Amino acid sequence: MTSSSSYPIGTPGTPWTSAEVREWRSRQEKQRDYGDAVVSMVERLRQDFDVVEYGSLEYGDEGRFPLYALKPRVWDEALPCALVTGGVHGYETSGVHGALQFAERHARDYAGKLNVIVAPCVSPWAYERINRWNAEAIDPNRSFREPSPAGESAALMQLVAPLKGRFVVHIDLHETTDTDESEFRPALAARDGKPFVAGTIPDGFYLVDDADNPQPAFQQAIIDAVARVTHIAPADPDGTIIGSPVVSPGVIRYAFVPLGLCAGVTGARFATTTEVYPDSPKATPEQCNAAQVAAARAALDFAVENG
Q1: For residue 161, what are the contacts with CB-CB under 8 A and spacing of at least 6?
Q2: CA gap 87, 93 in Å, rounded
Q3: From CA 272, how far away is CA 266, in angstroms rounded?
Q4: 211 lies in some domain
Q5: Number of domains in the chain
Q6: 64: burial class by Cβ within 10 Å (0-12, 13-18, 19+)?
Q7: With DSSP H G I counted as helix, E B as strand and the rest as coil, what are the percentages for the chain, rounded to 5?
Q8: Which of 287, 283, 161, 261 is nearest to 208 (CA)?
Q9: Which domain holds residue 187?
């Protein structure tokens, strides 16, 4: 149904102008520190990885945000590549910290099998403000296209461009939260001058496969691994999750490249987007991080065995 409630910025039915974007940005308060929570961990990992600053974002008074990726200390040109991304939506906490935990505890396990690159926090301004969009009210996860309207997306695209054709697997770590329905979807409707249509939030973990390159066995391997850590989201009564048909338990499909999604940036044969539900009464933050780690390991293990 269509909600009658209005978002506090803008005029219903009218897309935002730069004035509304500025008003929205002025309301976004810093709630955590990228340097303390993410960069400090990246620095601790320098002893085991090559740390690459693949770009930086300048957001006025909010400061400069360097973008970091972790690469193997020994890079083997004969091996295929893997990419693990987190924090494309900065508010999705377990995506960031799950990527960092995977790097710290497991990335080195793939030495001699894959060149693993981990970009743990693609959108640091949004990480600090616990927001979906970047500072310009743009969703980075709809911006992986040329030319990209989001600096976050453009920088990651530039990082992976020299390796296009060499990626065998890419897993992009996300969350679906209660604030998707209470804040971010209403904000999107207001920004675009459209009515807000209320939806539902899945209770549990699910995956998004690529509609243009479906890999059901790959997705199932990840679901099986994560089910040992946290619960898998059931379908809604109409057989959908977030309005998309469920093609197998816990799996839906989007067209990655046409939608400008991060999971399509490498062109990898095996690609997926995870969605953890941190607001479930049946899951803790530690479980959410562990689910992301389990998903990443299962994805890379499958690629090693089947790539």
Answers
A1: none
A2: 7
A3: 11
A4: yes
A5: 1
A6: exposed
A7: 40, 20, 40
A8: 261
A9: 18-306
85-132 pLDDT, tens per residue? 999 999 999 999 999 999 999 999 999 999 999 999 999 999 999 999
DSSP-assigned beta bridge partners for residue 119? 85
In a domain, 1, yes or no: no
> Is residue 278 domain-resident?
yes
Residue 177: which CATH number?
Answer: 3.40.630.10
DSSP code of residue 248:
B
Handedness of CA 154, 266, 249, 225 (dihedral sign): negative
Span 220-235, pLDDT tens digits: 999 999 999 999 999 9
> What sign has the CA pseudo-torsion 172, 175, 181, 182?
negative
Token couple for 222 = 């990840």
**DSSP designation for 232:** B
| 64 SS3 class | strand
Q: Is 13 part of a structural domain of the chain?
A: no
The rounded distance, in Å, linking the Cα atoms of 91 and 126 is 6
